[in-house]
Specification:
539 residues, two-stranded antiparallel ribbon, 17 helices
């Protein structure tokens, strides 16, 4: 809630955004009374399924009033503009072009203070919950809030500001990002780069407390008027959407030491409900959640100890860090996981005092397994084209011999052929056979042999390249025990590689609400295993 008020300037304290969803027979009367205009129901693009087109709203509610206007005309224009803000910024759905008429029912009396910030945050949580599931191809919600939140916390991810524009007086903190950007270090619009960045990100590269007391006091009053309930542990409601506000899991944001929070169940009903639940009075259906919100000042999380490590990472043996590493999914891609774990192993060897041979041997085994992942990623090649049938039949025996046992060539500086590495896999028509010399490289018509270290040295800007530049010895890489089936996929480059659990059955999503046919989408709780298909992954 603090992020919503500070970044967007949207109130979080007030009446909940719940009520009765209008039925089909009430649409026309509601629009005529509160908007002064009725969308044409014969034109499906203007109104559909209880949702009104944002295009229709923009065309009719521009803030222009005819001569002889009344106070009611002003209120109608205000309602039309507020609906555009709701459907386009604060609570957009999957389509991004419609807004539900249920929000119009709450705009009858514009003097009532509503908790639009509560609904905005709950809306974002709802769509993130549904859209992050495997098989979902649409996403909704106020992503402007998510983007500003990320830029304020991850300085290595945020773009640089050129300072050509300045935050206007009286605007929320998020307005400072309305500027020209420059970004020299991070490739934009490349998903793999962002995944790799997050896998390698260190705890001390995060701004744990982005809003200091001095910064908050310098903002307009609307950006901190709800400070008293920023740390309240209550439900977030937005008509059928119900999510949990869990400030006890982000205590460092408020300047307090983070401890192990209480266990929570994110899958318990009414979580996961959407507009397919029907035209109901949700203020009655969710009476328990509404009562809890009405007593929100009694559910404020205790402050706890002051965080003395305000801007640094907790040590690895901290109880919270141990718990978090046990229950969370630490990596997005296997490449990032292997790289990060390998760097951690080298750091353990560097700081080990005194040396323990058993520990060193265990670290070596883990490091070899991680390098096996990198080796598979670097050496993956598309299948070799088969030999044309029109070639000379007299040379078939010699051709077959060359495919199965390619010739090993010594290193030649002029030709650029690297040394051979023992124990590598032959990648050719005889894929899968292992020999003791080299593997063939069909690049530009040349044939040679290549080692893992040479490939690592040749990868530009790869995290391990500086560590391997001075190394001259070959490295024997054993088969990695981590999910070998993943590396046998033909299209490795285009595959989505995550350590997130993926269900065997893919649910078909229907409609704009994102709910799969046959039931609600559930989330994993705290006590989850890191699973990839049928293979448990222990990183």
């Amino acid at each position: 809630m603090q992020d919503v008020e500070v970044l967007l300037g949207v109130l979080v304290d007030g009446e909940l955004i719940v009520g009765t969803i209008p039925t089909k027979g009430e649409w026309n009367g509601l629009c005529e009374r509160l908007l002064g205009a009725i969308p044409d129901r014969k034109k499906k693009k203007e109104i559909k399924g209880g949702k009104i087109s944002l295009t229709w709203l923009r065309a009719r509610f521009k803030g222009h009033l005819e001569p002889g206007y009344t106070d009611e005309n002003i209120r109608q224009q205000a309602r039309g503009y507020i609906l555009q803000l709701i459907g386009g910024i604060l609570m957009p759905d999957y389509s991004g072009s419609y807004v539900h008429l249920c929000y119009l029912t709450l705009l009858d009396d514009l003097l009532v203070v509503q908790s639009w910030g509560n609904a905005c945050l709950g809306n974002l949580y709802h769509y993130l919950c549904h859209s992050c599931r495997h098989g979902s191809d649409n996403v909704g919600g106020p992503f402007i809030l998510l983007q500003l939140w990320a830029w304020e916390r991850f300085p290595y991810l945020a773009p640089g500001l050129l300072g050509k524009r300045f935050r206007p007086a009286g605007s929320p903190l998020g307005a400072r990002w309305h500027d020209n950007f420059h970004n020299l270090d991070l490739a934009a619009h490349v998903l793999g780069v962002y995944r790799h960045f997050f896998d390698l990100q260190k705890p001390d590269e995060v701004i744990w407390r982005p809003y200091s007391d001095e910064l908050i006091d310098s903002l307009p009053h609307i950006c901190h008027v709800g400070r008293a309930i920023w740390m309240t542990k209550v439900p977030l409601l937005c008509f059928p959407f119900v999510q949990n506000h869990m400030p006890d899991r982000v205590m460092r944001q408020f300047g307090f030491r983070q401890t192990i929070p209480q266990n929570c169940d994110c899958t318990a009903p009414p979580h996961g409900k959407d507009f397919k639940s029907g035209a109901k009075n949700y203020s009655v259906k969710y009476r328990a959640q509404v009562n809890m919100w009405n007593n929100r000042f009694h559910h404020v999380v205790p402050h706890g100890d002051v965080d003395l490590l305000d801007s640094v990472a907790y040590p690895d043996d901290d109880p919270y860090v141990v718990w978090y590493n046990r229950i969370t999914i630490r990596y997005v891609s296997r490449l990032g996981a292997a790289t990060n774990i390998t760097c951690g192993l080298f750091e353990r060897l560097r700081t080990m005092d005194p040396l323990d041979l058993d520990v060193v041997r265990n670290i070596g085994d883990q490091g070899v397994a991680c390098l096996g992942n990198l080796d598979k990623w670097l050496r993956k090649r598309p299948p070799i084209k088969p030999v044309p049938e029109q070639q000379n039949a007299g040379n078939e025996e010699e051709q077959l011999h060359n495919l199965v046992q390619p010739q090993n060539e010594p290193f030649n500086t002029e030709q650029g052929h690297p040394d051979a590495t023992p124990g590598t896999r032959t990648e050719g028509n005889a894929a899968g056979s292992v020999h003791d010399g080299s593997r063939s490289l069909h690049e530009g018509g040349g044939t040679g042999s290549c080692s893992l270290l040479t490939l690592l040295r040749s990868a530009e800007r790869y995290p391990l390249t500086p560590m391997l530049e001075d190394s001259t010895s070959s490295m024997h890489v054993i088969q990695s025990p981590v999910s070998q089936t993943w590396f046998d996929m033909a299209d490795l480059v285009g595959a989505e590689t995550t350590l997130v659990h993926r269900s065997e059955k893919r649910k078909r999503f229907d409609g704009d609400d994102g709910c799969p046919i046959g039931g609600d989408v559930t989330q994993c709780g705290d006590e989850v295993d890191r699973v990839d298909g049928n293979h448990s992954v222990n990183v």
